[in-house]
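Appendix B, record 7
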Amino acid sequence: MSRVHYFQRYSQRENVITNNTLLLFLRLCEYNRFKFEKFIETLFADQAAELPIWGMDFSQQLGTGASVPDGYLAQDSIKIVIETKLGQFGLAQLENHLQAFREEQYKFLVLLGPTCDAIAAPEHAALRKEAKSRAVEVVVATFEQIVRSANDCLSPWEEEMRALVEDYESYCSGENLLPRDKFTVLVGSCTHSLAENLEFKLYYAPSATIFRKTRYLGIYAAWTIQAIGVITNQVACDVDLDAGVVQVLKARGELSEDGKNRIVNACRKARERQWGDIASGHTFYLSDDLANTHLQTKSVIRTFQYFDLERDLHIDMIPATSAELAELLRGRTWS
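Structure tokens (predicted):
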């Protein structure tokens, strides 16, 4: 049987993504089976079944004779078959996957992709009809839903597992599997360095902290998001403060002279105020159009957090400029 690997051994991108997703499932199951039950039931929220999970077996790329689904989760009474697609699903392949099911009490075929519209309505209807004849439930799931369901099953103090989910979320973001990134704001807590963050229009964090590839940056202090803007560059670098030179290690795009100067000046301010050395081992998130705003939060943000402009603040039409967005957010409260 082809087991889930801790380190990917697949050349095809979809197989790597499936392996990493199954690894998250496996770690949650090994950590606490009751939490894993809650995770699966939350992910399958539209299904009526409650799944008694006690001895789940995980595998990948296991053939049925008619097809090779991307992933399996199974025990005596349950089988969950996963097919991952970054484009459109094909009806013939999915119908062949139905042959993987036998006499299990609970049977689910999961169509996993970045969005919920990766299978056309006629094909979806035909698949559900064929699946129903075999007592198989068809579930359409996204990577965003997996992240949300995993977070929902964990308590705030379960830091190690939350870090695992955050890492999976960052991985999905880096692979462009989270379309909501274009509506998402990375909110960085800047309590001590607020003035400098606003002056130099940036946020910085240790490079070991991996964030989603969000479109927007929010600067936070004193229960308030003080400014917001589009992230124009993300730069991991080493800074020679004496020479004023920035050695770029990794960046989203070419670093402008203005961006270099802002990074150097931020590092100098941090040294002057004895906040620690941020000239090495840090990544800088630059916004060329950071605009002042006043969006109140109901809870304190200690390091960083994300929020979705559409889902969390119900903004249907996001303005074209940061200045207009900042004005739209002014006076609102985000919970």
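Remarks on this record: The first strand starts at residue 57 and ends at 60. The chain has two domains: 13-149, 181-334.
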